[in-house]
Every structure is written in C-alpha cells, then in structure tokens.
Write a structure and sequence with these properties.
heterodimer, A: about 160 residues, alpha+beta, Ubiquitin-like (UB roll), DNA polymerase, domain 1, 2 domains, 5-stranded mixed sheet, about 15% strand, B: about 800 residues, Aldehyde Oxidoreductase, domain 4, 4 domains, 7-stranded mixed sheet, 19 helices
C-alpha cells in the first residue's frame, strides 16, 4: 500500500493508504480528525470541505495519494486553543449553526470565499455556498455570519 | 441577581454553549465513534419494489475475505418493528397492522427493503461480501398509485386482504353534506401534498456493542429519542430487558422527524452484536438515506368548502388518501389523522367539518412524521382553498380570512374537530406581517416587475398548529400506545452547580443553552453553573424525546417543576440552619432569607449544607438536593401566525424567485430570541423547499428516481432570500412558562404562502392552480395551459 505524507494543520502526518482511499477517509479514519464530515456520496453536500494548499476542496473528491506533499487544513486547525478564529466566532455570534454537521464544511468554504473576495455581496456569498447544503438554518444566519466575519477579517 | 445574570435570563439571546465544540470539529457524532474490535455492517437491499424471495445463497459471501458473519431473515426470527398509534376505521374495526420485518421474511415490498446483513472487518469487505449474495426473486407488480391501490388490485400484504390500512373519519358527514348543500357557494379543490425526503445532513448511523460478562448491550444511534428506541427495540422486537440495553444518542446532525423512528438497521446490529461478540458499526450512505429514512407528506386530497352569501364559512369536507409506504413506521398512522384532520379548522370559525382519511400501503419507502407532520398538509389545504374561494366569489383573500378568523376574545375556543385552542391573536400576527412585508408598497413593486417583463405576486398563509405533544390522556383516547409526558431531574452538586437531566434530545435546537437559561434564571445562579445532560439512557431517568415542538413546552416545563422542588427542599434546609420556619424563608436572586431579617444563605451554601448534614433532623429532613419531575400537559399548545411570501416569476421560463418572505409567529413566551428566529428560518427554508424545489419521484416500477442530491433538489443558499421574522406573543394558558413551541411553525405556515404568491403572480395570465413543487417546468406548463 502506498504511504502518503502531508502537513495537516501545520503538523506532519503520514500513513499507509489504499490507492482508492479518499482524503476524507484518511483524515477521519487514519488521523482520527473527525471534525470533517461525510454527508453524501455524490460530492454535493460539502460537509467534507477542507483546505488543500490554501484552497477549499471537497475531501471526498480527492484521493489521499493526490494530497501527498500538500498542506491540508481542517476545521480542527482553525482555533487557537479555546480562542475561535474570526469565521468560527462569527458563526457562534450569529447562530450560523444548529446541528453542526454541515458546519465544518461551511466554515472552511466560507473562509476560502472571504480570502478570495473579502467584499463579497450577499448574492455572491449565496452563490458561493451552492456547494454546501445546510438543512437547519435556511442559510440566513450563515450568510450573516460570513458577512460579519468578512468585515472583521478585513480589519 | 449576580452580575451578568440579566443577560442570560429568559428573553436573552444567549450565544449557544454547543457551538464551541461543534465549530472546532470536536462534536461527537455517531460515525465519529469507534469501539475496540469494531466490525462493519452492510445491508443487502432489495432492488425490486415488490417481489417474493425464492432463495438466498450466502455461501460465497461467507467465504469472502474479511467477512465475519452473514444473517438473513431466516436467521433473525424476532418481533416486527411496532407501530405506536392505533387508528380505528369508521366501521369500528382496528387498523390493519401487517408485520414490519426487520429483515425480509419471504417477500420484499420496496426498493431498499432489508434482505440480509453482511458483517466484516471493514466497510469495503462488508460491501464486497454483500455483492456475492445470490438472491432469487420472483418479481411481482409494484403497487404505486394511491387511489388504484386503495381500490384493490395487487396486494402488498396478502394476509390482510386489502391495501387499505384504515378508513378513518372525524365529524358528522351527513350534517356536513347538508350544510354544504345549503351553502350559497361551494369551492372544491383537488390537491396533492408532495412526498418529501427529510435529508438531515448527518446520515443515520449506529454502533452496537454487547458485553458478554454483564450481558449488557450498548447502542449508539442517531435518534431524537433514545428512551423510545430502548423501549420499542427492547420490549417489542428483541425482548431485551431495559436495564440491560443502554441507548446513547450523542451529537446528532439534524432529525426533522426522520430520526424519531425505530429502524431496522440499528435493530439488526444490536441483535447481531451478541451473535458475533464484537461491536458492529453501520453508517448509511446517502443513497441509503434516500431509500430508507422515513419520508414525509404524500397526501392526495379532495375538499369542499361552503360559504354563505356573506362569505362566512359554513362547512368543510375533506377526503384524503394518505400514503403509508410499504409498512407502518413508528408514528405513521397518527400523522394523516390526529395530527392532520384535527387542524382543519385552522384559524377560522368553520362550524362543522368532516374529514375522511384512507391510509394506503404502496411499494414505497415508509412515510411518517416529517417537520410539521400532518399540520403542514392541513394548512396547505386550508390556505389554498380559502384563496380559491376568495377568487371564485370575487372577494379579497385577506378580507375573507379576517372575516372568518376566530376573534382574540374567543379563547378558549373549541373547534369542531376535537381541539380546544387555549390562546392566540391571529389578527395581531396578520397586522404585523402586513406591516413588515410592506404590503402597502406591493403595487409599486409589482408595476416595476411588470415593466421588466416579470410577474410579481403576493401570497398569504394564516395558520395554526398543535404542538407540545402531547397530553397523554387525550393522546391515549385517540389511540396512542404510549404516554407523551416528559421528565427532568435537577441534580444540585455540593458546590452549588447543577446538572439537569432531560428526556428530550437536542439535535440542533440548542437545548443546552435554552434549558440552562431557564434553570439559571429560576435558581439565580450563573448560567455557567448549569449543565444540561441528555441523550443517554444510562444517565437520564426517562424521556419521550424531541419531536412535535415539544421539548420546551413539555420538557422545559418538567425542568421548571423539578427546579421548583429543589427550591422547596432547599428552603427547608435553609430554615433548619437559619433556625426559622420554612414558611418564613424567602427565596430571591439566589438567596434564602428569613423574612424581615438580614439572615440569609446563598444557594451554594444551602447546597453544601444538603450534602454535609451534620445536624439534620433525619426523620424530617433528608440529606441531598436532587429532585425530579414528570410533566404531562393538560392540552396541546397552539402556535400560529401569518406568513407572507412575495415572488417574481419569469413568464418566459417559469423560474420563480422568492423576493421576500415575512413570518410573524406566535410561539408563546420566547426564552432565547436568537434560537427562536433560527428555528423559523430553517422551517421556512424547508417549506419553500417543499413549495418550489423538493419532490420525491418513483417510476411506475417503484424505482426511486430522486435518490441522490443530483436528482432531489435540496434548497441551496442561492435559492432563498434572507427572511423577515418576528413574533407576536400570547401566552400558553396551561404551562407556567407560557411557551408554545417553535420547531415546526416555519415548515407548517410557509408552503401555501409561496404557492398562493405564485398563483397570484400569474393570475392575470389565467393561471388558477400550480402544484408543488412549483419548479420552472411546472410553472411554465401552467402558463402554457392557461394560454391554450
């Protein structure tokens, strides 16, 4: 079985994987980083979004071997101890999550949006989130959270 | 009151305690858990909608690498999955209850029905093993059309001799027929409430573990009600004593009803865990969720509403065919009867109503409670037929509603369909919603749309629902086989902090925050000193769980009552130590004080004294401070409100855009406004989803065509606007908090507002009806048909 080496949340991580092992399986099952979730089997729901080399990626659409040598950041890599990062804090402050299952993917996806387009309008935020499904919030407070975080991250 | 307590009390938008773990990836959902020696289960499912199983050959699967065991229905001879609510037909006969096998017994009745389970060292090996099972099917005709199935033809359950589960009625049919015949106008409508697939984003999952030395089972499962699962599985299916079956529902990723029910998979692996002596994990793939999670709605209804010459409603007759799917799911039978027909008065004074529901078995996934459960179907029917009646009689639909509304001074109000509304002010929510939706400015917005080639419409829904499920005595009379009370234990620790054990379960609703607000407020202690514990039958005394917008109105009230008992006990302890009589001890702001003196003890001091009882008179005062309460409500609660939807339709393409959505709801006293608004947002999104996007489709052979997120349209962020939500409060009259419940209002009130808006937008093109989901194709066809 091939061995993969990558940086996950700033720390070296390696493991033996099958060629068919998805990045999300490597994160959840090998590294036991279970904050990244699996909500579907067709790459629609976005619960598994992580950052690979700075860009948001659905980790169910990527093989672990494809991430060999990459810098991967997951939801576990954002907070500094108990101190949430601005996007996490904005979700908390604006009730941008309910059951929390889609939340890791939402937060990772939203961070990539704000990095790319700090002044995103509501319509641009909604369009960007097309690949992340939430069943609880109706997106209202997720959009609000991202708008607040964009303001704070731009400061 | 301690510093800061003001901002955490009742009415404060306290930020959620749940969020820290959920935002940092530290939540614990079932699939995140792994047990030592764990194996993995894969379920072999029927590819046919209806077939006899001639033979099953598992030998190749058993020889497959990594496979630990294979079981079929022949191996697993246990009780069937039970139905919790018995309905009687109009002729007095009890409903038909054909067996609901955990693993197929000789026949399969829908695509996805469980045929065998393969348990292996890995998921891949379990799946590979399942592919080697040979099943010889004798394929039978699928039973798909509701009315045709009710009439006869191919029988899904031959032993009952019919596809009709029950033929139920409520009200005096002859009197309603006579009143309709005497009415100045009768509006008729044929309406379909589209079948929905719940789609909590966390797929169902379970891990079962058996300890051979203690003979205890532990089941981690994605449920909204762990004690109900323990009771149903233990007592009715597997015959396990409840003290040897522990059910844990940790963080659960949304439910919306679909995680209420006892399912086959969790039952299979619990049973099998003892057979193989190792833990077994099962996690649904999304495609399995689509074809095995209980679906929602699926009604076909014909209704007639009578009006007198002045526009007053005279009578309503409603005939509904309700799809049960292939078997009876846990609460399926109650949904199109007592959660539906009893709401057909709505907010109106219609004097007599008759409802008939025929529940029908078909070769489809089971149908059961989904957010709103029966009440959205009632609301959709009423709010569509009222609009149609207004159009047919040349009346303004809002005025017609106002004219027929129950007046604010008419409460308690007994409806002709078995309920008594305790409180409400429907006019207030309507006034407020019209203001917030800027109805006055609609004409100008419509003109602007018209100038841009678009059609703009405004749609209303003035609705009521019954929740706070449920008064056990009433539910029992109506056929419930369980009580629907809730329990709470308030355990005060020696240092004055508190753990509250609730039988409700939070899977997004924020109970850890809202319930802590209640107890902190009541005891006058910091909110950080209150911990809410739920979801583990090993910790929590008992519970009926979370559904029917019951957690606060029933579970919260139980917490309040248990906390009151704590205060009374603490008062006695304080009296003993302060050498006063209990009647002279006043409790306020977290301190017990001898009336008229400065002698007092803080709550924490009393708590410590309770556990250090060095001089207690033990014959009259027990040590400890730990109280519980079981609360059974006297009545349902009745949230209501007004939803106004404004849409713009492109007449060339049929694309509907929701421009504004305003919801003004009366949910009783609001404990946490932030959480209440969030519940409404989510419910409205599901309602807009039902109205415009979502629809479950089977082909004529019973294959599920909408079996993935590529085929079943979930509402995405770019399908929805930001919402305008507000509350207008009247208090519930029969719980001390005055709360009514908010979990379902959004999904109940919103669909007819959306469809009424679409019809309104297209009315000058001659469109009078659009069905759900009003996809661009459906709308485009309606426009073409009207032009033809």
């Amino acid at each position: 079985m091939p061995t993969v080496n990558m940086s996950v949340n700033g720390k070296p991580a390696s493991g033996e994987v099958e060629a068919r092992t998805l990045l999300v399986q490597f994160l959840r099952e090998t590294l036991r980083l279970t904050g990244t979730h699996v909500g579907c089997d067709t790459s629609q729901c976005g619960a598994c979004v992580v950052h690979v080399n700075g860009s948001s990626v659905k980790s169910c659409t990527m093989l672990a071997v494809q991430a060999d040598g990459a810098e991967v950041v997951t939801i576990e890599g954002l907070a500094d101890g108990d101190s949430l990062n601005p996007m996490q804090e904005a979700f908390r402050n604006n009730h941008g999550l309910q059951c929390g299952f889609c939340t890791p993917g939402m937060v990772m996806s939203a961070m990539d949006l704000v990095n790319r387009n700090p002044g995103a309008t509501e319509a641009e935020i909604r369009e960007w989130l097309e690949g992340n499904i939430c069943r609880c919030t109706g997106y209202h407070n997720i959009v609000k959270s991202i708008q607040e975080a964009a303001g704070n991250m731009g400061d | 009151m301690p510093d800061g307590a003001q901002e955490t009390g009742i009415g404060a938008s306290v930020r959620r305690f749940e969020d820290q773990r959920l935002l940092t990836g530290n939540g614990t959902y079932v699939d995140d858990i792994n047990r030592p020696g764990q194996t993995y289960a894969h379920i072999l499912r029927s590819p046919h909608a209806h077939a006899r199983i001639v033979s099953i050959d598992t030998s190749a699967a058993l020889a497959s690498p990594g496979v630990v065991a294979v079981f079929t229905g022949e191996d697993m001879q246990v009780g069937g999955l039970p139905c919790g609510w018995q309905i009687h037909s109009q002729d007095g006969s009890p409903m038909h209850e054909p067996p609901h096998p955990v693993l197929a017994q000789g026949k399969v009745r829908h695509v996805g029905d469980q045929v065998a389970v393969v348990i292996a060292e890995s998921v891949h090996e379990a799946r590979a093993g399942a592919e080697l099972i040979g099943v010889d099917y004798d394929v039978l005709p699928a039973v798909m059309d509701l009315k045709a199935a009710a009439a006869g033809g191919t029988l899904l359950h031959e032993e009952i001799g019919t596809n009709v589960c029950y033929d139920w009625g409520l009200g005096d049919e002859a009197a309603v027929d006579a009143a309709l015949a005497a009415s100045a106008h009768v509006t008729e409508i044929d309406i379909t409430n589209n079948r929905l697939i719940p789609n909590a984003i966390e797929p169902r999952a379970a891990i079962a573990e058996y300890n051979g030395s203690t003979r205890e089972y532990t089941l981690y499962t994605t449920t909204q009600n762990p004690h109900v699962i323990r009771l149903l599985m233990g007592a009715f299916v597997l015959s396990l004593p409840e003290h040897k079956l522990r059910v844990i529902a940790p963080d659960v990723g949304g439910g919306f009803g679909s995680k209420i029910f006892l399912y086959a998979e969790e039952t299979i692996i619990t049973w099998a865990s003892a057979r193989i002596g190792r833990p077994i994990k099962w996690t649904a793939e999304r495609s399995e969720s689509f074809m095995t999670d209980a679906h929602g709605r699926d009604h076909v209804t014909h209704a007639r509403l009578g009006l007198d010459a002045d526009g007053r409603f005279t009578a309503l007759k409603v005939e509904t065919h309700a799809n049960m799917g292939a078997y009876l799911s846990t609460f399926a039978t109650s949904v199109p009867t007592y959660l539906y027909a009893t709401l057909l008065a709505g907010v109106y004074t219609t004097p007599i109503i008759f409802a008939n529901t025929r529940a029908v078995f078909t070769s489809t996934v089971v149908v059961d409670a989904y957010r709103g459960a029966g009440r959205p179907e009632a609301t959709y029917l009423l709010e569509r037929i009222v609009n149609k009646a207004a159009r047919e009689t040349g009346r303004d639909p809002v005025q017609l509603r106002r004219q027929n509304m129950i007046q604010p001074d008419a409460f308690p109000y007994a409806t002709p369909v078995a309920l008594t509304y305790d409180s409400g002010n429907y006019q207030a929510t309507l006034d407020s919603a019209e203001r917030l939706a800027d109805v006055a400015g609609f004409a100008a917005r419509k003109a602007a749309s018209e100038a841009a080639g678009r059609k703009r419409g405004l749609g209303y829904s003035t609705y009521i629902e019954a929740c706070g499920i449920a008064p056990s005595a009433v539910a029992g009379q109506l056929g419930a086989r369980a009580g629907l009370f809730e329990s709470a234990e308030v355990r005060v620790h020696p240092t004055g902090s508190v753990t509250v054990f609730t039988g409700t379960h939070s899977h997004g609703q924020g109970h850890e925050t809202t319930f802590a607000q209640l107890v902190s407020d009541q005891l006058g202690i910091p909110i950080e000193s209150v911990e809410i514990s739920h979801g583990d039958t090993g910790n929590v005394q008992f519970g009926m769980g979370t559904y029917g917008s019951r957690s606060l109105a029933v579970g919260g009230e139980a917490i309040v009552r248990a906390t009151n008992k704590v205060i009374e006990k603490a008062r006695k302890i304080a009296a003993h130590i302060l050498e006063a009589s209990a009647e002279d001890i006043e409790f306020a702001d977290g301190s017990f004080t001898v009336a008229g003196t400065d002698r007092s003890m803080a709550f924490g001091e009393v708590a410590l004294a309770a556990y250090v009882p060095h001089n207690f008179p033990h014959d009259t005062l027990e040590p400890g401070l730990d109280e519980s309460a079981f609360f059974d409500p006297a009545n349902f609660t009745f949230p209501g409100g007004t939803h106004i939807c404004e849409v713009e339709v492109d007449p060339e393409t049929g694309v509907v855009e929701v421009k504004n959505f305003t919801a003004v709801d009366d949910v009783g006293r609001v404990i946490n406004p932030m959480i209440v608004a969030g519940q409404v947002h989510g419910g409205v999104a599901q309602g807009i989803g039902q109205a415009l996007l979502e629809g479950c489709v089977f082909d004529s052979e019973g294959q599920l065509l909408t079996g993935s997120y590529m085929d079943y349209t979930m509402p995405r962020a770019d399908n929805l606007p930001s919402f305008t939500v507000a509350t207008e409060t009247t208090l519930c009259a029969h719980n001390t908090l005055g709360v009514k419940g908010v979990g379902e209002v959004g999904a109940i009130g919103s669909p007819p507002a959306v469809i009424n808006a679409v019809v309104n937008a297209l009315s000058d093109l001659g469109v009078t009806d659009v069905s759900m989901p009003a996809t661009s194709q459906t709308v485009w066809r309606a426009i073409q048909d009207a032009r033809a």
